[in-house]
Every structure is written in C-alpha cells, then in structure tokens.
Design goal:
alpha/beta
C-alpha cells in the first residue's frame, strides 16, 4: 500500500496553515508526515522539506511565534488576475510559461531580493531526506515543468527557493544557468505526481476557486487512488489567513486555525489513512 501526502501552494500563511493541520492530526493520532511519497509545491515545498527533515511539533511551534525579520510580500487580486490571464490564453503551454518568466523577471529581476535567508530560516541547513520527497518548479527558460528530488543534483534549499518563486510577488530563482519560478503556475498542488498511490491526502490552501477545485479533482482522478481526500481552509481558517497570503503577521493565527481544523478532521483522515 502506498500513501501519498500532497502539499499545495498558499504563501506564508499557507505554510502556517498546513503545518497546523498536520500537527492537529498528529495530536489526534494520525501522522501524515510518514507518507511513502510527499509532494510539495510552493508553500507546500517548504512544508514538505521541513516535515521530512525535522520534528513536526517544533515546526508548528515556530509558526505560532510573531515574525521578526521575514519580509512581507503582497499578493492581491491584480497580481493573481495578471498571472491568470497570461496562463489562460490559448496557445502552447511552454511558450506561455516562458512569457511568464520574462514578465516576472522584468517585475523582479533575479537577485533583486534575497529570499534565501527566509527560506533557510524555515529549513535550517537540512539536506534532502532519504525519502521520496518531490518538489515542483517551472523552468521558464525551456518552458518545462520540473520535479526535484534527492537525485536531481540540486540542493534542498535551492529546490524549495525555486518552488516558492511566485511570479510578480518574488524574483525568479536561478540555479546554475537555469531560471525557475513557482511550480504552482502549473497547478496549485500537482496532485497527479502521485499516480499509482492507493491513499492520497492533499492539503490545498489555494483551491477555493471553482477552476482550481476542478483541476485538483481531475488530477486526483488521474492518480487512480482508491481513497482520496482534499482539505482546504474552512471558514475560520480562511478568516485567519486573510486576504494577503504573503503577510507574515497572519502566520500565528493561520497556524492555530489549521491546528483546530486538523483536530476536527482527524476521524475522517484516520479512516482514510489507515
């Protein structure tokens, strides 16, 4: 039996909410971080890297402390609309991703803001775990979807940084001679990467829009899994997260709301996972 945990994108507050849900489930007796396969996209990449290399309880506790040096970003409706229009236009997918990369670098050139400190604060000096951890990004030079793992020859810090490089919010990330942006521009969760798993749980902070829900549903169907569950923020968690998922000030409230949601969902998740 293969069990898969898929962690979707959702900004700073998405990291906090996902860790809260996982910790709530753990306290209730079901630990999803022991999954056979863990897939992380954007915020989910940071969460996946953290929970496969260190203690979940510690990671959750850190989210509940007020932010100090983390730089706040802004992800408003205008940014999302601009990105959505670029991706929704008809045409070759690779060409669209290349255009997104060019526009993103014009908005925030590579190196214009050093986010490695914030990413390292989430991960420490962790290296790839000896487990099946998959982290998504998009190579905007080639217009290609990329999945990093422990055999990719890329450091865990670089892989997570690339996956978190949301166009128009943060600068693209260059690794060697290749430029990458957020794996979430392909899909908010990339759940189809766990095809063949029998049981799949998805934590998806940013799938409330009907189009994203439909995409996630189709991807879960393609996995062929007999048992699937997609979890998004409930009303209380959505309120705690607020309108700007890149606001570190909302992090503690998002983490606590995730914890409450995880505790409430534990019976259903336990039945599916076990």
């Amino acid at each position: 039996m293969t069990r898969a945990l898929v962690l979707g994108g959702g900004g700073v507050t998405g990291v906090a909410w996902e860790l809260g849900v996982l910790e709530g489930l753990r306290r209730a007796g079901v630990d999803l971080t022991g999954a056979d396969v863990v897939v992380g996209t954007s915020a989910g990449a940071a969460v996946g890297a953290r929970v496969t290399t260190s203690a979940l309880e510690t990671a959750y506790d850190e989210q509940c402390t007020p932010p100090t040096e983390e730089v706040a970003g802004h992800l408003g409706p205008t940014t999302l609309l601009r990105l959505g229009i670029m991706l929704a236009r008809p045409g070759d997918q690779a060409a669209k991703w290349r255009k997104v990369g060019t526009a993103a670098e014009h908005a925030h050139p590579v190196g214009s803001l050093d986010r490695s400190k914030a990413i390292r604060a989430r991960l420490g000096d962790a290296d790839w775990p000896d487990r099946d951890l998959r982290i998504t990004a998009v190579d905007v030079d080639a217009g290609a979807f990329v999945v990093f793992d422990k055999d990719s020859g890329v450091s865990l810090l670089d892989a997570v940084s690339a996956s978190c490089a949301l166009p128009f919010a943060w600068p693209p990330v260059r690794i060697d001679d290749t430029t990458y942006v957020d794996g979430g521009i392909r899909s908010p969760a990339n759940a189809d990467l766990v095809a063949g798993a029998e049981r799949v749980v998805v934590l998806a902070p940013q799938t409330q829009a009907p189009s994203r829900e439909h995409l996630l549903s189709r991807q879960l169907a393609r996995t062929g899994a007999a048992h699937t569950l997609a979890i998004s923020p409930d009303h209380q968690a959505s309120h705690a997260i607020g309108h700007n998922p890149l606001d570190p000030g909302k992090r503690p409230a998002a983490a606590r709301a995730g914890l409450a949601q995880g505790l409430a969902l534990a019976p259903d998740v336990t039945t599916l996972w076990r």
